[in-house]
Write a structure and sequence with these properties.
mainly alpha, about 180 residues
């Protein structure tokens, strides 16, 4: 995306401020989930090494928690323009051209996020209908899907918001601005 600092990426409008606050809370929760994963791995590896008794199902738990953490980070990452940027070819083009490319990228991202949300919903319904549980304990695999869907809905709102900002920047940017 365009070179923007975190302060410039923040929106001054009320919708942008609300989306930024929600995204920040989700990202903080994702960070806490990462801490839980680190603690879980530490306890399991220590238990395996010292007592030959790891936490049962630790791989499954880590996978589920990691998935939730990734979904929690996505809206904040988009809001502060923290996604991966490959600007080798766009380093010397105008601000308007970069904004047009960002607009195109956000349209694609919006489409992909909507498709993922749609498939996540139906995948969650299938997991629920099949009563899939983790082998080592009675944790239904679909239990985290509603959280993931909420994160994706917030991501869609954030991408739509940043898309409107990019369209505005593409429309009103100075043609000679580099």
């Amino acid at each position: 995306m365009s070179e923007q600092s975190r302060e410039n990426a923040r929106s001054t409008g009320s919708v942008g401020r609300v989306l930024f606050a929600i995204s920040k809370v989700l990202a903080t929760f994702g960070g806490l989930l990462c801490c839980v994963m680190a603690l879980l791995v530490t306890i399991s590896v220590t238990g395996r090494y010292l007592f030959d008794s790891p936490i049962p199902g630790d791989y499954d738990l880590i996978a589920i928690i990691c998935g939730c953490a990734v979904f929690a980070f996505l809206p904040y990452c988009q809001m502060v323009r923290g996604n991966v940027v490959v600007d080798f070819f766009t380093a010397n083009i105008s601000a308007r051209s970069k904004a047009i490319l960002d607009t195109f990228g956000n349209i694609l991202y919006l489409f992909v996020a909507a498709m993922f949300t749609w498939r996540l919903y139906y995948g969650g319904l299938e997991l629920r209908a099949n009563h899939e549980v983790l082998a080592n304990f009675n944790f239904y695999r679909w239990w985290t899907i509603p959280f993931d869907i909420v994160c994706m809905i917030i991501l869609i709102a954030v991408v739509a918001h940043t898309l409107t900002r990019d369209i505005r920047d593409a429309w009103f940017a100075e043609p000679s601005d580099k």
